Amino acid sequence: MISRRDALPDADVHSEGFRQTRRARQSALVEDYVELIADLIEDGQEARQVDIAARLGVSQPTVAKMLMRLSSEGLVYRKPYRGVFLTETGQKVAQESRERHQIVEAFLISIGVSIEIARIDAEGIEHYVSDETLNAFKAAMSAKRK
């Protein structure tokens, strides 16, 4: 059985972890969509609704609903008879999400997690990890290289 090292933290400190998790949960889906759209475009393809649905493993109506949300939030725009494109704000969100993903994935690989599992696990962790923890991951990887 695993025991706690310390007493419960102060209620404000304790609740902050739950608040951060709720915020991350709300933004995770948006970040996943925007990052995927950026990846499809950078891969030389158009980000079409059908491709987004296939890669996320969801239905096209689900994608259509999310694209409406992303559009209303100013992250994407659509062109008639073409795919989905990122606004400048959407590009920034995609880049930040991609960087977080790359740091987490690289860290997991550096501690011995297989590439395949690191890629899968990083997809979830990237949304929940703090900037402080990301910086610690980078520092640990940098120290390991020396």
Automatic annotation (TrEMBL):
Keywords: Activator, Cytoplasm, DNA-binding, Manganese, Repressor, Transcription, Transcription regulation
HTH dtxR-type domain sequence ranges: 31-87
GO molecular function, one term: DNA binding
A Pfam family matched in the record: Fe_dep_repress
Cellular component GO terms held in the UniProt record: cytoplasm
Chief subcellular location: cytoplasm
Location in the cell: Cytoplasm
InterPro entries given in the database record: DtxR_MntR_Metal-Reg (IPR050536), Fe_dep_repressor (IPR001367), Fe_dep_repressor_sf (IPR036421), HTH_DTXR (IPR022687), Iron_dep_repressor (IPR022689), WH-like_DNA-bd_sf (IPR036388), WH_DNA-bd_sf (IPR036390)
Biological role stated in the UniProt entry: In the presence of manganese, represses expression of mntH and mntS. Up-regulates expression of mntP.
Assembly notes: Homodimer.
Family (UniProt): Belongs to the DtxR/MntR family.
Record protein name field: Transcriptional regulator MntR
